[in-house]
Amino acid sequence: MADSMNSAFRFALCASVVLLAGCGGGGGGGTNPITPVQATAPTIFAATTANTQNGAQMVTLTTTTSGATIYYTIDGTTPTTSSIVYETSFLVASNLTINAIAAASGDTNSSVATKTFTPNIASDTLVWSDEFANSTSANAQPNSLVWTYDTGAGGWGNSELENYCAWGSTATPCSTTTPNAFVAPGGGLNIMAEQPSGGVYTSARMKTEGLFSFQYGRIEIKAEVPEAQGFWPAFWLMGNNIDTVDWPACGEMDVMERINAAGTPDWNAGSIHGTGFTGGNLGTDYDFPTGQTAATLHTYGMIWSKGSVAYYVDDHTNPYVTYTPSSISGFSGAVWPFDNGPNFIILNLAVGGSWPGSPNSSTPFPSTMLVDYVRVYTN
Asked: Any residues with CB less than 8 A from the CB of 173 and at least 6 apart, and which?
C-alpha cells in the first residue's frame, strides 16, 4: 500500500511540474530543462512636446516583458546590465545613438534596440522650457505633465519645519484656498511659505521626477527669493536612479541655494554631493555685486557636460566654479555620480532646518519664491 501511494503521489507531482523540469521514470529517466525565454527588445519612442524646442525630443523606452529592467547607452556602445538603468522619459537634444536591452530574471537578455538621433542643434540653443505662462485671471495649476510634488512633514533629513503641500491638497494644514504653488495671472511660478497658525508652516517642493529629465546641457532659472530668518529656497537636481541606489549615490547638484536674510555682500551657494562628499564638502559661494541681492530677479544656471559641473549667476559665459572628478579626489571613498544618467529638477522653499535655523518674529508670512522660467539649452 505504501508503494502504491508513493507512486500515485509521484505521478501527481510530475503532472504539476512537468513543464518546469520533467520527471524521471522508475527505470532511471532524466530531466527536461526549461528553454529560457528571451526578453522582448525595448521600443524607443521619441516625441516632441509642448515644452521641447528647436528639434529636441523626449524619449521613452518600453518593453512588453513583465518585470524587465531596461538598460541603455548613449555613446553607441553595446548595453549590458551595468549600463544606465532607464527610469523615465529623458530629453534628447544632441546627435547620439541610443542602444537598449531588456533584462528580466529567468529570461535571456533581449536583442539590442537601436535608434540614432541627428537633430543637428547648434550649441547654446533653447531645447526645453517651462515659461510658467497663465493668460487667465485666476491662479493656475503648474503644468501637471511636468511637475509633481513631495508632500508632508518630517523634516526631510534637515530638521525642516514646513509641511509641503501639493496643488489641490486638502490634507491639514494644506488648503486649496491658499495654494503653496501656483502660476499667477500674467505668468510666473509662485512658491509660497505660509504660516496658517502659530508654529505651523506650509510650503511647496516641486519636482519633475518621473515626468522630465535630461543628461548634459545648460539649465537655467530666473528667480527671486525671499530673504529672512529661517527661509531656505533652492533649485537643484538629483539622479533618476535615486529609487534604486538611494541618496547620495544618485548624486545631487545644487544650483541655487541660500538661507536667511540678505548678506553683505549677498550670496548664492553652488554645491555638489555624492558618495563620500556630502554636507559642506564641496560648495562655493557666489557674492553678488555691491548693492544687489537675491531678493531681485537673477538667473542661476548650471553647465553640465561629461566629467564637469559648472555654476554661474547672471552670465553663463563666466562660471564662478567648476567641479570635475579631480575635485573629489581628496575624499575617502568618493565616487563621481554625475555621468550615470539623467537627472530631474527640484524647486522648493524650505522653512527652518539645521542650516538656517527657525523663523522668528521678523520673518514675514506669507513670503514668495518667484520663478519666471526654467530653461534647458544645448552646451
From this structure: 163, 196, 197, 200, 202
Cα 56 from Cα 98, distance rounded (Å): 15
Question: Phi and psi for 15 in degrees, rounded to 5?
Answer: -60, -30
Would you please indicate which residues are annotated as catalytic (active-site) residues? 252, 257
* Cα–Cα distance measured from residue 338 to residue 195, given in angstroms and rounded to the nearest whole number: 37
- Write the pLDDT tens digit of every residue in 26-45: 444 556 667 789 999 999 99
Tens digits of per-residue pLDDT, 186-207?
A: 999 999 999 999 999 999 999 9
For residue 296, give the C-alpha cell. Answer: 531681485
**Alpha-carbon span 278 to 334, nearest angstrom:** 10
Does 10 have pLDDT greater than 70? no
What is the domain extent for residue 256?
Answer: 126-377
> In the chain, how many domains are there?
2
pLDDT at 31: 63
Cα atoms found within 13 Å of the Cα of residue 370, Cβ hemisphere only: 16
Domain at 80, CATH number:
2.60.40
- pTM for the model stands at 0.90
Nearest by Cα to 55 from 2, 103, 117, 110:
117
Residue 375: strand pairing partners: 129, 220
Residue 111 sits in the same domain as residue 133:
no
- In tens, the pLDDT along 64-111 reads 999 999 999 999 999 999 999 999 999 999 999 999 999 999 999 999
* 181 and 57 belong to one structural domain: no
